[in-house]
Specification:
This protein has two helices and 13 strands. The protein is mainly beta and about 170 residues long. It starts with 10 loop residues before the first strand and ends in an 11-residue tail after the last strand.
Length: about 170
């Protein structure tokens, strides 16, 4: 058995250059030995667990949809607004919600204290070196995984299916 205490898991901060987006994450799965680049499920784990804290006035990240990943959320404290295709839904302590692949979503701190929740992701892996990708409907961007866990952000224009193929 592997055991850790949340107090011993380092908190990682990620924020946008202009400050609209911000979060602190405790990656519990990595603390329990997850090796994100491994193809061996016993080293990758079949799911990821993280404790996320969004400070007052911040949004987790841009509105996005995963191509392959499902995410299950459980709110611990604070108040949040969850944006999806139907609009905004307020959530609070004890609320749980799920997003399947292709369902765009965004989490926003809607209160005057930190918005804290657990997120469990099913950690998909689809052959080769790539797995999940994200689409950002508001900006028309895609995030695709390169080697390891590095992301490549691309934004293109519509083209013909056979463009560049013949």
């Amino acid at each position: 058995m592997r055991k850790i205490n949340l107090q011993d898991v380092p908190e990682q901060e990620r924020k946008s250059p202009k400050g609209k987006f911000g979060r602190f994450t405790k990656n519990i799965s990595v603390a329990l030995g997850r090796e994100p680049e491994s193809l061996d499920l016993s080293k990758r784990h079949p799911f990821d667990l993280a404790l996320v804290r969004i400070p007052e006035g911040k949004t987790l990240c841009p509105y996005h949809a995963h191509s392959a990943e499902s995410e299950l959320y459980l709110v611990v404290s604070g108040r949040g607004n969850v944006r999806d295709k139907n609009g905004i839904t307020e959530v609070g302590p004890g609320d749980a919600f799920l997003f399947q692949p292709g369902e765009a979503h965004q989490l926003i701190n809607a209160g005057d204290e930190d918005f804290v929740y657990y997120v469990i992701a099913d950690n998909p892996r689809s052959g080769g070196e790539t797995g999940d990708s994200c689409y950002y409907p508001d900006s028309g961007k895609w995030a695709v995984t390169r080697e390891g866990s590095e992301e490549l952000i691309v934004k293109g224009t519509e083209t013909d299916y056979f463009d560049g193929e013949e």
